[in-house]
């Protein structure tokens, strides 16, 4: 697995990231261990988690595996703060106190002294940007964090935060924005991608298979063992004509290349400008294996362009003005 620089920083991450959002909630510790070992054996280093995943259980499972299965020194560990969950309730709190408290809890859960990458999980409009960024700066200066980033930030928020950090010497620069990005969800290309390119942030796409829709498994119904079934979705969730057209185009490309839709969707995404490492939230070892196999495939230019065309996001005023 190749290593890629995260934006214009010195942090190198593997070409695929391993997401752990389902660990402790659909993926038990034994399956998680098998997934992590297989990821590591394939050359993977970048592992992403968050305190809000499975009510801290994701971090705890990962921490136990770091101690017993894969050495800490061979992983790039990333976590996030700013979202708290208690049962079905969700709070956003990116105040300085909440962020730094969450950081300390993450370090305890993971059993480590520092994180390679720490990100604000989502914007908090109730907290001033300088307070949020001040907490990130303190995390770096204290030695608890090596690099900092944001997640789910819009274009203007990304530009505001990155410019603020560059305005004064000594502030830690932002190196990443972790955002939803796939053939079915290209909205970040309007403003987020240009902002990241201009200011040196790497893009870390999550949900690169659009919650499994791009695998094609929902083309003829909802499998009983799928995430869609577990979440009680109906087929109306996948009935949009444009979405159906994109999924069919991916399936057609996969047939033509004698490979899987997973491979096509991930190979397309890896080649997008600014993308460092798509984060694959594999629930099972089989899903991870399919994702890793995509690394051996480079899409022919005509297929890349055809997928670009069928999934092209709408650009209007003012995004179209360059």
From TrEMBL:
Pfam families: Aldo_ket_red (PF00248). This is Aldo/keto reductase. Residues 16-300 form the NADP-dependent oxidoreductase domain. PANTHER family: NADH-SPECIFIC METHYLGLYOXAL REDUCTASE-RELATED (PTHR43364), OXIDOREDUCTASE (PTHR43364:SF18).
């Amino acid at each position: 697995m190749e290593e890629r620089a995260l934006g214009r920083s010195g942090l190198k991450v593997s070409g695929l990231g391993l997401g752990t959002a389902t660990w402790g909630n659909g993926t038990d510790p034994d399956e998680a261990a098998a997934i992590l070992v297989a990821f590591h054996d394939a050359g993977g280093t970048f592992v992403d988690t968050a305190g809000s995943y499975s009510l801290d259980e994701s971090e705890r499972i990962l921490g136990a595996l770091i101690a017993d299965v894969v050495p800490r020194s061979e992983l790039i560990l990333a976590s996030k703060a700013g979202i708290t969950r208690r049962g079905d309730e969700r709070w956003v709190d990116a105040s300085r106190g909440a962020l730094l408290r969450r950081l300390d809890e993450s370090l305890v859960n993971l059993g480590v002294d520092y994180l390679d990458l720490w990100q604000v999980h989502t914007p908090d409009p109730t907290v001033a940007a300088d307070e949020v960024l001040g907490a990130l700066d303190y995390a770096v200066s204290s030695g608890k964090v090596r690099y900092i980033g944001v997640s789910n930030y819009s274009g203007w928020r990304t530009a505001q935060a990155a410019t603020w950090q560059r305005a004064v010497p000594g502030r830690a620069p932002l190196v990443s924005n972790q955002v939803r990005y796939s053939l079915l969800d290209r909205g970040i290309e309007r403003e987020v991608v240009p902002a990241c390119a201009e200011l040196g942030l790497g893009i870390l796409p999550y949900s690169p298979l659009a919650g499994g829709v791009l695998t094609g498994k929902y083309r003829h119904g909802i499998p009983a063992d799928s995430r869609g079934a577990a979440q009680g979705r109906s087929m109306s969730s996948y009935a949009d004509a444009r979405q159906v057209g994109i999924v069919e185009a991916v399936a057609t490309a996969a047939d033509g290349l004698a490979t899987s839709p997973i491979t096509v969707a991930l190979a397309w995404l890896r080649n997008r400008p600014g993308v460092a490492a798509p984060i694959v939230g594999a629930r099972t070892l089989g899903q991870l294996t399919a994702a890793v196999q995509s690394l051996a495939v480079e899409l022919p230019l005509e297929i890349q362009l055809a997928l670009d065309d069928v999934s092209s996001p709408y650009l209007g005023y003012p995004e179209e003005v360059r």
